[in-house]
Amino acid sequence: MNNNTTTTTASSSQGGRGGGGSEMKKYKGVRCRKWGKWVSEIRVPGTNDRLWLGSYSTPEAAAMAYDVAYYSLRPGPTSLSKLNFPSLLPTHILPTDTRPDSIQRAASDIGMAVDAAARLATYDAAADHGHGYNQQTSLDISVDDYIDS
Question: Is position 10 within any domain?
Fold first, then answer.
């Protein structure tokens, strides 16, 4: 009997749902479009409104966007247990107000930063395997550099 579990990764997101079902880890607030993009949205507490958080290349980016929005809408230590990545919550970029546009911007910023980091990791991996990339021309950027700009 095989006890290995498969988690959702950027590489498994190529080509859509990648089999779906119980094989893939599902992040809160995240779903996959049939063309392979990962989207995130959240319900605004006390209303029937949904706040669109964006469309991303990886499920992890969409999940981080959800985490930022969730914690911004429901701050406090009890909210941490309901996040996808509680130990990775970037508290330094959380919005200071709870206006939907501020929360949406902060969530989108972190989601795009996670996607950018995933693309750079893919680029670096290809360079390490000699796929025609020049290691000396790789970009030197961090998630914090992207967010602070």
Answer: no
Q: Evaluate if pTM is beyond 0.70.
A: no
What is the span of the domain harbouring residue 134? 27-148
Provide the number of structural domains found in the chain. 1
Is the sign of the CA dihedral 96, 62, 110, 9 positive or negative? positive
Q: What is the pLDDT along the chain (149 residues), one digit of tens a residue?
A: 444 333 344 434 444 444 444 445 689 999 999 998 999 999 998 899 999 999 999 999 999 999 999 999 998 888 888 999 988 888 777 888 888 899 999 999 999 999 998 888 776 666 655 555 454 444 455 556 556 55
CATH of the domain at 119: 3.30.730.10
- In the chain the beta strands, taken as DSSP E runs, fall at 30-32, 38-43, 50-56
- Virtual CA dihedral for 112, 113, 117, 123, nearest 10 degrees? 50
